[in-house]
Design brief:
Layout (H helix, E strand, L loop, with lengths): L1 H14 L7 E2 L6 E9 L8 E5 L4 H4 L3 E5 L3 E2 L2 E2 L3 E5 L3 E2 L7 E6 L2 E3 L2 E5 L3 E6 L5 E10 L5 E11 L3 E6 L7 E6 L6 E7 L4 E3 L5 E7 L2 E9 L3 E9 L4 E3 L2 E3 L2
Length: 246
């Protein structure tokens, strides 16, 4: 009897969809969610951090590099990903060449959404060595974060390397350069195509959503996650705003 129960458990685990499983279908009367992400109140003391540039100054520049961890302009909070959680089927993924460019001793872009499991081009546009380190940020209860290395390698000259980027338990990826302590970026590895980076004015729009009730979230690497439940009517539009504070 125990062997039978064990076999049933194993088979059920094997049949469970893997993290990021998603099925593309034709969406009938898809809806839209749109809105804006803002910041209210005083910025946290560590919103901007300054690093002294001590090497490769001919490429990286002289003096200090300011890293804007909490980027607010006219009330709009930038560098935020808005995504819908738990959609297992819906609109198709759109084709895209994902690139992380190391240019002027900066990662470009600062924040991007990729399809989990996609191949990403790691480009070094600088005539100096960079060492790119990508880590999956697994959030645990109590606020603790476990970091799992996805890749970590040096690029000693201009060129490109392609890497498959797949997270296991979390969509959040932190990028840093081990050769230059002021180079950072972020990736959101989406399990469905209903995710987007907000615009410079904090606005976002996600379309062609199957009618239904969902949890929509806004993630900022330093300020955390905001979440709300929305019901998307067939062919309708729902407006959702998120406000972060320190």
């Amino acid at each position: 009897m125990k062997k039978i129960l064990y076999l049933v458990v194993v088979l059920s685990l094997l049949s469970m969809p893997a993290y990021g499983a998603y099925r593309e279908v034709t969406v009938d009367k898809g809806g839209v969610v749109k809105g804006r992400v803002t910041f209210k109140g005083q910025l946290p003391p560590n919103a901007v951090q300054k690093f002294t540039i001590t090497k490769d100054t001919n490429v990286c520049g002289l003096g200090q590099r300011a890293v804007n961890w909490v980027d607010v302009k006219d009330g709009a909070l930038r560098g935020v990903v808005v995504y819908i959680e738990g959609i297992r089927e819906g609109k198709p993924w759109t084709g895209k060449d994902y690139v992380i460019d190391q240019k002027g001793c900066r990662f470009e872009p600062w924040m991007q959404v990729i399809r989990n499991g996609a191949t990403v081009t790691i480009r070094n546009s600088d005539p100096v060595m960079h060492n790119i380190n990508a880590k999956e940020m697994i959030l645990l209860r109590g606020g603790r974060v476990v970091k799992r290395t996805i890749f970590n390698f040096a690029q000693s000259r201009p060129g490109e390397v392609k890497k498959r980027v797949r997270t296991r338990r979390s969509p959040f990826i932190a990028i840093n350069c081990e050769a230059h302590n002021f180079m950072f970026a972020w990736i959101f590895a989406a399990s469905n195509p209903y995710a987007t980076v907000v615009g410079d004015d904090g606005s976002f729009r996600i379309d062609n959503i199957p009618p239904g009730t969902y949890t929509i979230k806004a993630w900022h690497p330093r300020l955390g996650i905001k979440a709300t439940e929305v019901t998307i009517p067939a062919g309708g539009t729902v407006e959702v705003d998120f406000t972060f504070t320190k």
